[in-house]
Hints:
- The chain has 15 helices and ten strands.
- By secondary structure, the protein is α+β, with helices and mostly antiparallel strands.
- The strands form two sheets. An eight-stranded mixed sheet has the order 3-9-8-7-4-5-6-10, with helices on both faces. Strands 1-2 form a two-stranded antiparallel sheet.
- The longest helix has 32 residues, at 79-110.
- The chain is globular.
- The chain starts with 11 loop residues before the first helix and ends with a helix.
Amino acid sequence: MRETRGDGATALLDCLGLSRAEEAVYLRLLAEPGLAAPELARRLDMTQHQLGYHTESLTAYGLVERDGTHPAGWRATAPDIALEALMRRREAELMKLRGRVDELMRSYRRSRQAPGSDELIEVVSGREAIAGCWRTLQDSAHSQIQILDKSPHVLAADPQYESTLIRKGVVVQVIYESQVVRNPERLADIHRYMSVGEHSRMLPRLPFKLALVDERWALLPVSTGSALHSALVVRPCSLLDALSGLFALSWSQAMRIPRTGTSEESEAEGRRRELLTLLAAGLTDDSIARQLGVSTRTVQRLVREFMDSFGARTRFQAGVQAARLDLI
Length: 328
């Protein structure tokens, strides 16, 4: 579950899984490069042994390196370089895991008639049956529900029902495909879900629809496409483990969807927040201009300024970096 944190720099915890101590070391080195190890340990109230452990971990992430000018010192790698490398590494891991899912599905099909296979994977046919199965799984949730959300949908948006689940202590994490976020009505629905406690992120594309419940069940379509005629219910097995891993990697890659602006926020800040959200969702300049009520030329100028300021090569990358810096 993603936790909202006050300082934009601490969004590192969300996407990298750093411990608080590792994060503290990295942020200190960003602010004060070249500190000798003893002084760095003193300022962070750590032993040098603890500091060595954390810097080794950060080095593995590519976030920290030895300072050649100070043999006893460390320095932080520039965030844009370090995070770009990490993003590429995660993308490679995600692609590898997607291939693993295909392999497991082939194994499932080969062994479908094996004794006991029907206990691990069940086929549910028909939209009404799928909707009923999904509601039953939600009602059975004890701790968490994780969703890859893309079309087609079998149930209408119901923030009140999700609010009931969250009040029961169920953590709800949803990754939306950016195409969904581009629809103003669906974005309004998502903000209603967020207002009751849903943790929402987005990616440019999702491989398929998926719902995970308590690491006990997964629900996913039998085939991709514009219609949903049948779905698989997966119980604890290697396929369920792979699907859980796919969600975890996707979550680490995804950009959080910003909440709506507050009444204290200036018009310019609100406009910037909305522009960056639409930018990350992949809307064209013309579409953004229509939604913001400005000219296409104005949008193009602002987009170029944002990309230049973040050193981003793509529009989505600029949106991701803006979200990690808590600018949206």
